[in-house]
Amino acid sequence: MTELRIAVLGVGMMGAFHVDALTKRIRGAKVTVISDYFPEKAKEVADAIGARVVDDPIEAINDAEVDAVLIASPGAVHDVQVNACLDAGKPVLCEKPLTTDIASSRVIVEKEKSLGKELIQVGFMRRFDPEYVALHQLIVSGGLGNPLMVHCTHRNPAVPDHFNSEFMIRDSVVHEVDVTRFLLGEEIVSVQVIKGVATSAAPAGTNDPMLVVFETESGRIVTDEIYVRTGVAYEVRTEVVGEQGSATIGLDQNLQVKRTDGSWGGQITPGFVERFGQAYDIELQRWVDAAKQGTIDGPGAWDGYAAVAVCEAGVKAVRSGRKEYVQLAGIALPVEEEPIPDIRAPDLIGDRP
Ligand SMILES: NC(=O)c1ccc[n+]([C@@H]2O[C@H](COP(=O)([O-])OP(=O)(O)OC[C@H]3O[C@@H](n4cnc5c(N)ncnc54)[C@H](O)[C@@H]3O)[C@@H](O)[C@H]2O)c1
């Protein structure tokens, strides 16, 4: 196969971005079919690249001129579309989330397993970002000794009002979920969400920023500051603290300028496209190359399922204010923790003056 013929489902922000990359920068790929809930949107994108519009996304998946599928529709319809790709036996790059609930993601994992080949890649592009790749290599090569803790910072300049506390977990923290699993090579078993003072830029009832704490299978702690209305820029940092050193990525130190007026500084990437543009291109190129061989080259269905399970626990933790355990197949849930007995002297118990 010289050119992989691709159907893109959903050409909103991400889908249109991927179509542009597949058309201009990715080798060996051709977008042949576009499908979107709004046919006029699909037509506009399709006309610009000489592709066909197929209104029904399932028909688009099964189209004879389609070898592989890129899903960039809203998460709520991923379940149906990914299942249709499996039924058609076509490789698929599905933007996160794999689905929007644990049960349907699990069914997809099992269904793919029963086919005996990996067809589903999930769009966790940070795994292709050169800085994350270097950090991962440093860890697996033993360069930091045993990794003990990870500290993440995820800040956006601004987001629409529908980014409430729960959406911040599902849409933003989900990337740190995958980063944690990628860097440490183990599952996350619990999530706690600590809510502090909210920025006045947040709508009423939204806790922005929040501190999210993951605990992994081996007991490592990961913290993630999620703050999506900073008004500043797009800042994503990750620090891994090991027994023999620590390493940080995302420090915006690539270009520091000193000026004649005595000021110095650099530029922070304004948005996620500027920060992760290269990662998306690498992700797409590797997916295209693998899909031609009928397989994937990146995070798969299990990774998508695990991320959904952790985010479910995260949403529960936002609501309960407690540590919530991740319901993931093969991961034992801990025995309910005993409450800590109050050992203060009786006269110290009671209201503070
Ligand atoms: N990997 C990342 O960094 C990243 C970043 C942003 C968004 N995403 C993910 O990409 C997906 C799309 O996000 P977006 O920001 O582009 O959203 P968007 O709302 O801009 O675009 C979604 C598009 O899908 C279309 N659509 C709706 N129902 C459809 C259906 N049944 N079939 C086909 N198309 C349909 C909509 O009309 C719209 O054009 C989401 O799953 C989102 O979580 C990933």
UniProtKB/TrEMBL annotation:
Reaction(s) catalysed by this chain's protein: myo-inositol + NAD(+) = scyllo-inosose + NADH + H(+)
Residues that span the membrane, as ranges: none
Lineage: superkingdom: Bacteria
SUPFAM superfamilies named in the record: Glyceraldehyde-3-phosphate dehydrogenase-like, C-terminal domain, NAD(P)-binding Rossmann-fold domains
Gene3D superfamilies for this protein: Dihydrodipicolinate Reductase, domain 2 (3.30.360.10), NAD(P)-binding Rossmann-like Domain (3.40.50.720)
EC number annotated for this UniProt entry: 1.1.1.18
The UniProt record lists the keyword Ion transport: no
Domain Gfo/Idh/MocA-like oxidoreductase N-terminal: start-end pairs: 4-123
Keyword terms: NAD, Oxidoreductase
Alphabetized InterPro entries for the sequence: Gfo-Idh-MocA_inositol_DH (IPR050424), Gfo/Idh/MocA-like_OxRdtase_C (IPR004104), Gfo/Idh/MocA-like_OxRdtase_N (IPR000683), MI/DCI_dehydrogenase (IPR023794), NAD(P)-bd_dom_sf (IPR036291)
Domain Gfo/Idh/MocA-like oxidoreductase C-terminal: 137-327
Record has Transferase as a keyword: no
Assembly description: Homotetramer.
Similarity field: Belongs to the Gfo/Idh/MocA family.
Functional summary from the UniProt entry: Involved in the oxidation of myo-inositol (MI) to 2-keto-myo-inositol (2KMI or 2-inosose).
PANTHER family registered for this protein in UniProt: INOSITOL 2-DEHYDROGENASE (PTHR43593:SF1), PTHR43593
Protein name: Inositol 2-dehydrogenase
Source organism per UniProt: Microlunatus ginsengisoli
High-level lineage: Bacteria, Bacillati, Actinomycetota, Actinomycetes, Propionibacteriales
